Amino acid sequence: MVKLNKIYTRTGDDGTTGLGTGERRLKSDLRVDAYGTVDEANACIGMARIHT
Questions:
Q1: C-alpha–C-alpha distance, residues 14 and 26, integer Å
Q2: What is the number of structural domains in the chain?
Q3: Is 51 left (phi over 0), alpha (psi -120 to 50) or beta?
Q4: CA 5 to mean position of chain CA atoms
Q5: pTM of this prediction exceeds 0.90
Q6: How far apart are CA 52 and CA 47, in angstroms?
Q7: Is position 9 within any domain?
Q8: Model confidence pLDDT, tens digit, residues 3-52
Q9: DSSP string covering 19-44, please?
């Protein structure tokens, strides 16, 4: 697992996002979209576990 030491880059918004590996990808990249989808699913599962 990649450890993130900070959550900001101070590089401005050029339409890219940094991955934990240091690689930069467009925010519209399928991998970035997939990470967001998995994150949302994980949040829903967590909420379901809390309320059951």
A1: 9
A2: 1
A3: alpha
A4: 14
A5: no
A6: 9
A7: no
A8: 877 777 676 678 998 888 989 999 999 999 999 999 999 999 999 999 98
A9: -TTS-EEETT-HHHHHHHHHHHHHHH
Q: Could you give the CA distance from residue 27 to residue 24 in angstroms, rounded to a whole number?
A: 9
Tokens at residue 15, please? Answer: 């339409």
The first and second tokens of residue 4, run together, are 């993130």
What region, left, alpha or beta, does residue 18 occupy, with left being phi > 0 and alpha being psi -120 to 50 degrees? beta
Q: Which domain holds residue 50?
A: 26-52
CA 12 to chain centre: 17
36 lies in some domain: yes
Place of tokens 């467009």: 26
The type of residue at 25 is R
